[in-house]
Amino acid sequence: MKITPTTLSINQLLGSSNEQFVIPAYQRRYSWGEKQWSDLFNDIKLLNQQDSHLLGTILCLTSDYSVGVNLLELVDGQQRTTTLTILLKALADKFKDLKQEEIHKEIESLLFCKGIDRVLKRKVILGDLDNPDYEKLMNNEDVESIKNRKLLESYAFFIKKLNIFSLTELLEFHYKLVSNTYTIRLDVASAKDAYKLFETINNRGLSLSPTDIIKNFLLGHSSLISDHTLGKVKGYWTELIINLDGINTDDFFRQYLSSILKRKITGSIIIDEFKKYYFNSVIEAENLNEFSQYESLNLETDEEELEDASVEVEEETLEAKEKNDKVSIVEFAQSLRDAAKIYGYMRNQSFSNHTVNKHLKNLTKIKSFPAYIFLLDLFQRDVEETKKIEILKLIEIFMLRRHVCEYRTGELDAIFSSLVSVENHEIVKNVKKRLSNYLPSDSEFRNKFSQYSFRGNENRAKYVLEKLEYDLINDQGEYTLSSGDNLHLEHIIPQKITTKKSKEDFGDWENYLGDNAKDQHKEYVNRIGNLTLLAKALNIIASNNPFKSKVKEYQKSNINLTKELANMNDFKFQQVENRSAQFGSKAVQLWHF
């Protein structure tokens, strides 16, 4: 392995006019946040002029240098390098505002490169998903349309920090950044060496996310096979990243493994379990040095991972596959890409079937994240859409009942992992049978529903009220309530009743509700009986009977649940109790297997 390490100041790192850093499309999007920005800024700010600061290493995959712009592929260090250019951009803009043209141009020169054609090119090129946004930011063009807000937020963070500096302090900070801040650049000529070095630098990946480690593992192995194989695997990985845009990729891998292995996989063991699965599935894996560590291992269920002994565990395990059952690394990467595509459709509710998307949105409102383990498998099966919709309905019922009855969430991963073993024959019947084993009874659900607090679960409350509204109007699937910000969750007795502002806005509810109102308010305010839906903010004139003031607005609503309130003379804690009990009886009918 030939490695060329060079310690460079930021001036030296970015000062070469014929080098361009390229972040490949398979890398994750820019994701640094305020902690990382703050650490970087403060490390530089607090430097003495005689001291230096080491940012760490960046790893570049290089080719032979030639005339013109030489491309350096950033294998490691893309987040840090991108942030440095944004910080420099903020500094350059600040100096420009202060009419310091010479230093402004000096900093700008670090952000560009040029070849023999003398045409200026951006010094850093981000991946396909982020580069359009990065260009808008760096060119100050149409910045409000930037999709990756982290890029815009990082610039705003640095500008805010620099705004409080005097000109002298700005000059000092600039000097410490470009002259006293260093990085170690490691140039490697071959892909296989780059991925191996990446693993070594990161102490076998312990400081990285599981996704980064898995990516490096796959690309590193494919680079050992051939350039063609590396190209294909890179392509599939890039598509995987695009399919999961906006989604936590570690979530995907954890739930993908839970689905494939039919057992709960916790975040701490994603990497090891992925490698076990890989070595049992990929033909070329036998060529890796690590193969001997895994070839005799079966992927058996660890009972301790289930967190609850009440969950039934399938006896079957995924034994090491016979060689003729294994797939090539390219096929393996393709299957990951395909699963990521389905996962993206589920999380974004973007299937072609509107009804499927509607029920997936319902599951999101209820908070049904563990269900994706089974659904990822289900949506890759050759099963009729009508059956998939029936299963989605069953999961809605299952999840709402368990949440309302406050059953343990720790066992849900194991429950949905075990569902993967259900065969296609009579799948709806068998899923229903499995889920019934962990479903609260009607009487328990009815009682808990009327007393359940929806505090902190606004979307779940909206979902419940929408279902109650559809039932009230006997909807046949033709009517859809507005959603999101257009539909407000209305607390009939307001969430605050004792503050001066709440009394000015909504009237004296504390006096209206009577003795012990303050203590009882906490118990009743977030119950279903005190909630309704409203399409706009209330316009209330405070009065001695604050409920009557609200009634005038409720009468204008097209939502029947809300209109019904106008028929009531009073609305106090007893009315909340009665309405909650009424809804509890209805809930048993609506969310019933």
Question: If you had to describe this structure to a student in words, what would you say it looks like?
Answer:
The chain has 593 residues and is α/β, with parallel strands linked by helices. The protein has 3 domains: 3-201, no CATH class; 217-440, no CATH class; 451-590, no CATH class. The chain is built from 27 helices and 10 strands. The strands form 3 sheets. Strands 1-8-3-4-2-7 form a 6-stranded mixed beta sheet. Strand 5 (112-114) and strand 6 form a beta hairpin. Helix 3 (78-97) crosses helix 6.
% residues in beta strands: 5-15%
Count of spatially separate domains:
3
Unreliable spans are 299-310, 313-320
Distance between the termini: 62 Å
- List how many beta strands DSSP finds: 10
How many helical stretches?
27
Quickly give the structural class: alpha/beta
Radius of gyration, in angstroms, nearest whole number? 29 Å
The helical percent reads 40-55%
Order the strands across the largest sheet as they lie in space.
1-8-3-4-2-7
Average pLDDT rating: 89
Main beta sheet: 6 strands, mixed
The gross shape turns out to be: flat
